[in-house]
Design brief:
Prephenate/arogenate dehydrogenase domain-containing protein; alpha/beta; 2 domains; PDH_N; oxidoreductase; arogenate dehydrogenase (NADP+) activity; prephenate dehydrogenase (NAD+) activity
């Protein structure tokens, strides 16, 4: 039974030899067990961490195959003594999920970590909703099941220690990625969102535009066009929910979209001007 509400304020066997000397096996609970969470979990299992999962969909069979525990009941999940709770929901569903959690069922101060592609939004939401004794770590693994299928070496992992009192648990979680050779990039959530709007959101926008134009390979493709087709195909594999989340919950994305529109209009005007300059008045 959950402990009384206060003010606002079967596990996988561990394999210590798989972790680094300074890293202890963690008890990690995962909320949202979609493809990205499944991708991360395989490495966590390899390193010897104990994993529990819960999700809106029933992943009991998959979790049994992986050798981890799956909870259909959120209260039981929160009572299961997790040291870390990893939020792997979609950007658009995060608010509904986190506001519905019965935090009074937590059995100990817990490190909450998100892996969303935007950062200021989950940071602000977690600081507003989570219990005061919960630590907050905002992260963004800058890779996924496709780019990380052959390992995480030299792939970027961004993080900000927003509110950390238990340095040991936080360090052990970050070691999951450092041990795999990730480039560990510590920066503020604000700086991340500024840079992400000019990189990830821009890439997804261009890819969506190419998809709307039904761009396809041709027999005479240049190398540059082949790369454009690759951008279209890679971004199309991601859901429109992800793309819209990158826009709705990154305040810098709005300006970036305006910049794209302005750039297209500027180029159009330059082309029209050059075309008019080339018209032979004698014809």
């Amino acid at each position: 039974m959950c402990k009384p509400s206060t003010s606002h304020l079967p596990p996988l066997p561990t394999h210590p030899t798989m972790t680094s000397p300074s890293q202890k096996p963690l008890k990690v609970g995962i909320i949202g067990f979609g493809p990205f969470a499944q991708f991360l979990v395989k490495t966590m299992i390899k390193q010897g961490h104990s994993i529990k999962a819960t999700s809106r969909s029933d992943y009991t069979q998959l979790c049994t195959h992986l050798g981890i525990s799956f909870f259909r009941d959120m209260k039981a999940f929160l009572e299961s003594n997790n040291e870390v709770i990893l939020l792997c929901t979609s950007i658009l569903s995060l608010s509904q999920v986190i506001n519905s959690l019965p935090f009074n069922c937590l059995t100990q101060p817990t490190l909450f970590v998100d892996v969303l592609s935007v950062k200021e939004y989950p940071r602000d939401l977690m600081l507003q909703v989570l219990p005061q004794d919960s630590d907050v770590l905002c992260t963004h693994p800058m890779f996924g099941p496709e780019s990380g299928k052959d390992g995480w070496n030299d792939l970027t992992f961004m993080y900000e220690k927003v509110r950390i009192t238990n340095e040991a648990t936080c360090s052990s979680f970050l070691q999951i990625f450092a041990t795999e050779g990730c480039k560990m990039m510590e920066m503020t959530c604000e700086e991340h969102d500024k840079l992400s709007a000019r990189s990830q959101f821009l890439t997804h926008t261009i890819g969506r535009v190419l998809s709307e134009m039904e761009v396809e390979p041709t027999p005479i493709d240049t190398k540059g066009f082949q790369k454009l087709v690759q951008v279209k195909e890679s971004t199309s594999r991601d859901s429109f929910d992800l793309f819209s989340g990158l826009f709705i919950h990154n305040r810098f994305a709005k300006q970036q979209l305006m910049n794209i529109e302005l750039a297209v209009e500027t180029i159009k005007q330059q082309l029209v001007k050059r075309m008019n300059e080339q018209v032979d008045p004698s014809i």
